[in-house]
Specification:
Blueprint: H1 13-18, H2 40-51, H3 57-60, H4 64-77, H5 83-122, H6 125-157, H7 162-179, H8 186-196, H9 200-213, H10 216-232, H11 239-253, H12 267-271, H13 278-290, H14 292-319, H15 323-328
Length: 329
C-alpha cells in the first residue's frame, strides 16, 4: 500500500490509511493526472461556486451541481404554474426518460469497446479489479441490509428486528433482484404488506414515494464507485470530505432514474467534488455498466425490500401510540 500523507486539513495519516484498506484501481483511469483539492475547505468552496454558477453556462461546462441547484430552484418557482405548462414539462420529462432508455440499450456496444481496449493494454488483471469492485459494492449493500437497517428498525420498534429484516428480503428482495425495478416490484410489496397486516393508508403512500426516493443501494453505488475512481487517480481523501461525499450521494440517489442503471448516471455529480472532469467520470460510469447486472440487481433488491421494512416499522410504532394520537395523525 502506498504511503498517504495527511493533507493540509490536518487529518491524521492513520485515518486516511484506514479508509484505503480496500484500494481498487480502475484500469480505464490509469495514467490520468489531476489537480485534486487539498482539504475539505477547498471542496466546500468548489461546491458553493459550482452551485452559484451561471445557469446558462452550467450545461455547457457539464457542471452537474449547478444544473441540479438551478433545476431545484426552477421546480420550486413552477409550483404555481398553469396546468398547460405542467403538462408540457411532464411530456418533456417523459421524452428524456425514453432517451435515457435508448442510451442504455446501446451501452453494451460501447462497453465491449472499453473492455476490449482495457484488456488489450492491461491484460486479464483488469477483470480481477472489477471482481474486487463488485465484492466491495455487494459488501456495502449487505452491511446496510444486515447492520444499518436493523439498527434503525430497532430504534423505532424497540424489539428484535431480525425476523422482519429477514422476511422483507426473502419476500420482496428476491423478486426485485430479477426485475431490477422498484416500481415494478410495488405489487409484490403491496401483497406482502397485506400478509403482514399493515395499515393500507400508510403503505399506499409510502410505496410510491419509496420507489423513487428510498435509494440506499443507489447511494452506496455512487459513493463506492466515486471513491474507487478517486483512489485510482491517487487523490487523498480526508474523513470530512468522505462524509460530504456520502451525504451528496444520499441526496443525489433520491433523484435516480427508475430505469436499470439509473444511479450510475449520477456519478459525475459526486465525482465533481474532487475536480474530475466529465470525461473521467463517464469512464467510471462505463465501468459501472460493465458490472451492472449484479450491482443493479442487488441495489434494487435492497431499495425495494427496505420500503417494506421501514413501512412495517412505522406501522408498528403507530400501533403503540395512544388511539387519540393515531386518529390525529
Amino acid at each position: 500500500m502506498r504511503r498517504i500523507d495527511a493533507p493540509r486539513g490536518g487529518v491524521p495519516g492513520w485515518l486516511l490509511r484506514g479508509s484505503l484498506v480496500l484500494q481498487i484501481a480502475i484500469g480505464l483511469l490509469a495514467g490520468l493526472v489531476l489537480a485534486p483539492p487539498g482539504h475539505i475547505g477547498e471542496v466546500l468552496r468548489k461546491l458553493l461556486l459550482s452551485a452559484a454558477d451561471n445557469p446558462a453556462s452550467a450545461p455547457l461546462n457539464a457542471n452537474d451541481i449547478g444544473i441540479l441547484v438551478w433545476g431545484v430552484c426552477l421546480g420550486l418557482c413552477l409550483r404555481r404554474a398553469s396546468a398547460g405548462t405542467r403538462a408540457v414539462l411532464s411530456e418533456r420529462a417523459d421524452g428524456l426518460v425514453k432517451l435515457v432508455h435508448a442510451v442504455i440499450r446501446t451501452a453494451p456496444l460501447g462497453l465491449f469497446g472499453l473492455m476490449a481496449a482495457t484488456i488489450a493494454s492491461t491484460g486479464l488483471s483488469a477483470l480481477a479489479e472489477h471482481a474486487r469492485l463488485i465484492a466491495v459494492l455487494l459488501g456495502c449493500m449487505v452491511f446496510v441490509a444486515l447492520v444499518v437497517n436493523p439498527l434503525i428498525v430497532f430504534l423505532i420498534m424497540r424489539r428484535n428486528p431480525f425476523p422482519l429484516v429477514f422476511t422483507c428480503p426473502r419476500e420482496s428482495g428476491i423478486t426485485a433482484f430479477f426485475t431490477r425495478s422498484s416500481a415494478a416490484n410495488i405489487p409484490v410489496n403491496l401483497a406482502l404488506c397485506e400478509r403482514l397486516g399493515l395499515r393500507e393508508d400508510t403503505y399506499s403512500v409510502s410505496f410510491p414515494l419509496g420507489a423513487t426516493i428510498n435509494m440506499a443501494g443507489a447511494a452506496a453505488t455512487i459513493t463506492v464507485l466515486t471513491m474507487a475512481a478517486v483512489q485510482a487517480l491517487q487523490i487523498p481523501v480526508d474523513l470530512p470530505t468522505a462524509f460530504l461525499l456520502s451525504v451528496m450521494a444520499s441526496i443525489a440517489a433520491c433523484g435516480a432514474s427508475g430505469v436499470a442503471g439509473g444511479s450510475l448516471l449520477l456519478i459525475p455529480l459526486a465525482a465533481s467534488l474532487f475536480g474530475t472532469s466529465n470525461d473521467v467520470a463517464m469512464k467510471v460510469v462505463g465501468v459501472g455498466f460493465i458490472i451492472g447486472v449484479l450491482q443493479d440487481s442487488t441495489e434494487t433488491a435492497l431499495n425495494s425490500s427496505t420500503d417494506v421494512l421501514f413501512t412495517a416499522a412505522a406501522c408498528d410504532a403507530m400501533r403503540r401510540l395512544p388511539a387519540a394520537e393515531v386518529a390525529g395523525a
